[in-house]
Amino acid sequence: MIAPASGEPSFRGYLTDLVDGVKKGIAAKTPLDDMKKSIGDALAAKYEAGMSKYPLGRYRDRIGVNVEHVHAKLAPKS
User: Fold this and answer.
1) DSSP symbol at 57
2) CA dihedral defined by 70, 5, 7, 38, rounded to 10 degrees?
3) Mean pLDDT score, 8-37
4) Closest by Cα among 59, 44, 50, 58 to 5
5) CA-CA distance, 26 to 17, in Å (whole number)?
6) Are 1 and 10 in contact (CB under 8 A)?
7) Side-chain-facing half-sphere of 68: CA atoms under 13 Å
């Protein structure tokens, strides 16, 4: 993986960490609402500053939706 020239974590790294967090939450049978908070908090130190530079699409505004979308793709259908 190539890091951006700015030295900030990459978007690819964010997606990898997000998917890993959701997979772990699904395996642990963590409720989706709890996953949104715990994954958001866990990834914040690494990604929040870089993803909150602009008013539209700040990290905290989008992390819950991102967790939901990944969960919808990975969770077994019942």
Assistant:
1) T
2) -10
3) 94
4) 50
5) 14
6) yes
7) 6
According to DSSP, residue 25 is labeled H
Count CA atoms within 13 Å of residue 67 on its CB side: 25
* Residue of 65, 63, 51 whose CA lies nearest to 11: 51
**Is the distance from CB of 23 to CB of 50 less than 8 angstroms?**
no
Is the model more confident about 27 or about 6?
27
Q: How many CB atoms lie within 10 A of CB 64?
A: 16
Give me the residue spans of the domains in the chain.
Answer: 32-78
4 pLDDT above the threshold of 60 = no
Using the structure block, give the residue that is written with the tokens 């908070």. Answer: 37
